[in-house]
Amino acid sequence: MTMWNRNLMQLARSTVESRPLLLSQEMINPPRTKLGFWAGSPNSDVRKKLVLFQKDFQEFEFHFVEKLKGATVLYNFEKEIYRSKFCICPRGETQVGGVCLSESMAFGCVPVVMSDYYDLPFNDILDWDKFSVILKEDDVLELEKILKSIPEGKYEKMHQNVLKVRKHFKWHSPPAKYDEFHLVMYELWKRRHIIRY
User: Fold this and answer.
1) pTM score, whole prediction
2) What is the C-alpha separation between 187 and 121, in angstroms, rounded?
3) On the CB side of 29, how many CA atoms lie within 13 Å of its CA?
4) pLDDT band at 12, cuts 50/70/90?
5) Is the pLDDT score of 4 beyond 50?
6) Is 163 helix (H, G, I), strand (E, B) or coil?
7) What is the pLDDT of residue 154?
8) Which alpha helices (H) appear in the chain, and where do they start and end?
9) 3-state class of 7 per DSSP?
10) In whole angstroms, what separates CA 179 from the centre of its chain?
C-alpha cells in the first residue's frame, strides 16, 4: 500500500472535525437509498418514541446506542449516513443530539430536527427551511409519511443547500472564511444592540 493510499484511508476514517468537506465524487453525491438515519441514546421522550415505533419505519436505519461518543457513531455508521437522504436529529436530554446537525450536514444528509423548543444555530442568519425539515416531537408517528411527502425536486434543492451551508458549521484553527467562528462573530455583531456589557 502506498503512502498516498494509507493517508487517504486515515483521512476517510477521521472524525468530522478533521475531514475535508469533499473527499471524492462518490461522497459528494452518493446514491441515497435509505429514507432516514439516526443513531443515539434513547434518553428523551421523543427518542423513546423512536424506539417504540422503529419497527414501523421500514425505510430507516435506526441504531440505539448508550454512552457512545459522536466520533465512534460516525466511524461505525459512516456508510449508512452517506446512503440516507435525511438524518433524524431528535432532542436528547438537553439538546438536539445523536448524529447532530453539523455532523449530518458534513455528510450531505438533510437534517430533520425533532424538537418542540430548540433555538437553531445561526437562526437569524440562515434560512433553515431551505436545508432542513423542522418537526414537533409529536410528529414521530407521522415521520415516514412526512418525509415521503416531500417532492423529489424539493428534496434535491434542500440537499444542494445542505452542501452549500455545511461550511458554516465547521470550526477551523485558525478561522477560515465563512466558517463557524465567523458566523458566531457575525451573529454576535447582529445582536450587539441587545447585549449588555
Assistant:
1) 0.77
2) 10
3) 3
4) very low
5) no
6) helix
7) 97
8) 3-13, 25-28, 45-53, 70-82, 101-106, 143-148, 152-165, 180-190
9) helix
10) 16
- Sign, CA dihedral 176-130-110-28, equals negative
**For residues 107 and 118, what is the distance between their CA atoms, to the nearest angstrom?**
22
Long-range contacts of 111-115 (CB under 8 A, 24+ apart): 111/86, 111/87, 111/162, 112/36, 112/86, 112/87, 112/88, 112/143, 112/147, 113/89, 114/46, 114/88, 114/89, 114/90, 114/139, 114/140, 114/143, 115/46, 115/89, 115/90, 115/91
Tell me if 185 sits within 8 A of 173, measured CB to CB.
Answer: no
Contacts of 105 (CB under 8 A, 6+ apart): 111, 131, 162, 165, 166, 169
Cα–Cα distances (Å) from 102 to 2, 92, 156, 174, in that order, read 32, 15, 19, 19
Mean of all residue pLDDT scores within the chain: 78
Query: In this structure, which long-range contacts are made by residues 48-51, counting pairs with CB atoms below 8 Å and at least 24 apart in sequence?
Result: 49/137, 49/140, 49/141, 50/88, 50/90, 50/140
> Residue 196 has which C-alpha cell?
449588555
DSSP state of 35: E
